[in-house]
Design goal:
heterodimer; A: 154 residues; mainly beta; Immunoglobulin-like; six-stranded antiparallel beta sheet; 12% helix; 44% strand; B: mainly beta; six-stranded mixed beta sheet; 1 helix; 51% strand; globular
């Protein structure tokens, strides 16, 4: 019997052998993991500048936001803090995160509906201060709005 | 650590620069009246930014963060400058006397720098929107 023939016989015997002879070392592979839920929201442009309208009755400006969540989440917008020039006539602020949440109250926060699943959303921030006085005009000077957008992973 | 790294990669895979708070558990037990929470914080802005961490209780319902809790709360560190794409680990510990399962919120806030705009004799304005990410967790007595 030459060598190649001997090898073939050994291989054939091995293949025909009962399973315990063929079995080598085996191991079960088991991988587990869990992804923590999270969300985040960002104001992409920093401070938003607002410019006066042609009619002098409102200031407006736009920015952009990004919102990401990988599970149940919601977004709230804090009460809007407004600073106006000294002695300014009445006006009303508004902050709108488009298709998400808006608020024009200086005393109450506003909340989006709770969302489920995964979300990656970009949208506009539209902000304004509108006159709310009989003259229909904004008093000249510098105005500032401040608010906090909070996303909560539930 | 592996999970946090994978999650960070997931978060950074799109055009999102916001700060994020990671909690690996959603339920914590009170031990000797104290709760200890490990939190990971990251962001993907272009440069290092200052972030603040705070603990909040529930607001009008169990899904809404309420007032910031400071009494009996230790957050180490609570305010820090963090380079982009790094995870800062911190420890929140606080007293819990509630006798029922209670929601809390671990929050990280980014306050953009204020840009002063001088205007004389004309109306003009600016709007500053701070952003905050919170993760809700429950404490079991």
């Amino acid at each position: 019997m030459n060598t190649p023939q001997a090898i073939r016989i050994v291989l054939a015997a091995a293949l025909l052998a009962p399973a315990p002879i063929l079995a080598g070392t085996t191991t079960d592979i088991k991988a587990t993991g869990s992804a923590p839920s999270f969300c985040n929201i960002s104001n992409e442009g920093g401070t938003i500048s607002m410019a006066i309208s042609a009619g002098g009755d409102q200031l407006s400006g736009t920015g952009s936001y990004n919102y990401v969540a990988n599970g149940d989440a919601k977004v709230t917008l804090s009460p809007v803090q407004q600073t106006s020039p000294k002695g300014a006539a009445a006006s009303t602020p508004s902050i709108d995160l488009s298709d998400l949440v808006s608020n024009n109250s200086s005393g109450a926060s506003a909340a989006s509906d709770a969302s489920g699943g995964v979300i990656r959303k970009q949208g506009k921030i539209i902000t304004s201060i509108k006159q709310d006085n009989s003259a229909g005009l904004l008093t000249a000077g510098a105005y500032e709005l401040q608010a906090t957008a909070t996303c909560t992973a539930l | 650590m592996m999970r946090t790294t994978l999650l960070l990669a997931l978060v950074l895979s799109g055009p999102v620069h916001a700060q994020t708070a990671f909690l690996e558990k959603r339920e914590f037990s009170t031990k000797s009246g104290v709760v200890k929470i490990k939190l990971g914080v990251s962001h993907a802005r272009q440069e290092a930014v200052e972030l603040s961490v705070r603990l909040k209780g529930a607001g009008k319902d169990a899904e809404t963060p309420g007032a910031v809790i400071t009494e009996g709360v230790s957050i180490v560190p609570s305010r820090f400058k963090l380079p982009p794409n790094k995870v800062r680990r911190l420890l929140i510990s606080f007293q819990n006397t509630a006798t029922t399962r209670t929601p809390y919120f671990a929050c990280v806030i980014y306050q953009p720098p204020i840009e002063r705009m001088e205007r004389v004799g004309v109306a003009g304005g600016s709007m500053l929107l701070a952003t905050e990410s919170c993760s809700r967790f429950w404490v079991i007595p």
